Amino acid sequence: MNSTDSRASAYTTLSRDSVHEVEIKRSRFITYLFRVDSEAAARDHIAALRKTHFDARHHCSAFILGPDRMVQRSNDDGEPSGTAGIPMLEALAKRDTGRGTDLSDVLAVCVRYFGGIKLGAGGLVRAYSDSVSQALEHSTLHVRQRLRIFTLPAPHALAARWENELRAAGYQLEPSAWEADNAVLHIGIDDTAQDAEQLAAFTAALTSGEGRLLPYDTKWVDLP
C-alpha cells in the first residue's frame, strides 16, 4: 500500500536518530534508534552496525514501517528464539506516544557485548525490552501528518489578500504559482473530509463564490 493510500492520516516517528547504552550483569546493551522509510534502509543500518561493532556477540533488531504499521520485522541474531527481537518489537509497537500506540518508521538495533553472566530466557526478554524502552525515553518524537493539497486560482490583484486571510485562518500555504492570467494558490489541510468541507466553505466566502477550489496532491509532512 502506498503511504498516500493509508488509512492513518498521521502517526508518530523519531525526530532524530539516537543511541543509548545500559549494562545488565556485566553485559553491555547498546541500543540504536533510527528513523527509516523502507526495509532496505533498515537492513543497511543493521549491516553498518555489524561492521562498526564487529566484535559484539549479537546485533538484534526490530522495525516498524508505514503509516498503518503494516510492516513489522524482528531478528534474534543468535539469541534464544523469542528472547530478543520480539521483545524489542513489542517495546516499539506498544510505546504510548501520547497519541496512542502509533510509533512507526523506526528501527531499533540492540548490540550486545556479552559480560560472562548468562541471563536466562526471562532475563534476556527483560533486558532487550528494557533497553529499547529506555532508548525511547531518551529520544525525541514528533508527528508526521498527511496533507491534502488544493489549488485556488486567484486574480493577481487579490492573490496576496487571499493568501493572508487563508494564513490568518490557520491554513498552510505553499509557494503560489504566478501565471500569465492569474496566481495559483496551493493550500494544505489535514487529509480529512471534515477539513475539506471547511476549506470549501471558507474559500467560497473568501471569493464570494467565484473561487474554483481543486484537489491537487497529497503529501506527508513533519509537524513542528
Q: What is this structure, in a nutshell?
A:
This protein is of the alpha+beta class and 224 residues long.
Q: How would you describe this protein?
A:
With 224 residues, the chain is α+β, with helices and mostly antiparallel strands. Helices cover 30% and strands 36% of the residues. It contains five helices and ten strands. Strands 1, 7, 8, 9 and 10 form a five-stranded antiparallel sheet that branches. α2 (85-93) packs parallel to α3. The mean pLDDT is 94.
Largest sheet: 5 strands, antiparallel
Oligomer: single chain
Q: State the share of residues found in helices, binned by percent.
A: 25-40%
Distance between the termini: 26 Å
Order of helices and strands: EEEHEEHEHEHEEHE
User: Radius of gyration from the CA trace?
Assistant: 23 Å
- General form: elongated
Number of E-type strands: 10
Number of helices: 5
Protein name: YigZ family protein
Family: Belongs to the IMPACT family.
Pfam families: Impact_N
Q: Layout of SSEs?
A:
Blueprint: E1 10-14, E2 18-24, E3 27-35, H1 39-52, E4 58-65, E5 71-75, H2 85-93, E6 106-113, H3 120-137, E7 141-154, H4 156-168, E8 172-178, E9 183-190, H5 193-206, E10 214-222
Antiparallel strand pairs: 1-7, 2-3, 3-6, 4-5, 4-6, 7-9, 7-10, 8-9
Helix pairs in contact: 2-3
Give the tags.
224 residues, alpha+beta, 5 helices, 10 strands, elongated
